[in-house]
Amino acid sequence: MLYFKACPKCLGDMHLTEDMYGAYKECMQCGLIQDIEAPKIVQVPVRKASKAA
Ligand SMILES: [Zn+2]
After folding, report:
1. Structural domain that includes position 8
2. How many CB atoms lie within 10 A of CB 31?
3. Mean pLDDT, consecutive 10-residue segments, the chain of 53 residues?
């Protein structure tokens, strides 16, 4: 997968790379590596059922 002009340093094209630690983008022009944000774990608040009716 390619990201055109996505490099914040040189505005070069970046491509998606993945290794055992996760995915990251690497610039093909200057070699800058940018981590992909891991999806945040959404914690759902537990609602206590009210017994008072
Ligand atoms: Zn670059």
Report:
1. 2-35
2. 11
3. 95 94 93 84 79 70
From ligand 1's centre to the CA of 11, what distance in Å?
6
Cα–ligand 1 centroid distance for 20 (angstroms): 23
Q: For the chain, what is the largest distance between any 2 Cα atoms, rounded to a whole number of angstroms?
A: 66
| Predicted TM-score (pTM) of this structure | 0.64
Residue 48 falls within a domain, yes or no? no
Question: Among all chains, which residue has been given the structure tokens 């290794």?
Answer: 19
Say which DSSP state 52 is in: -
- Say how many domains are in the chain: 1
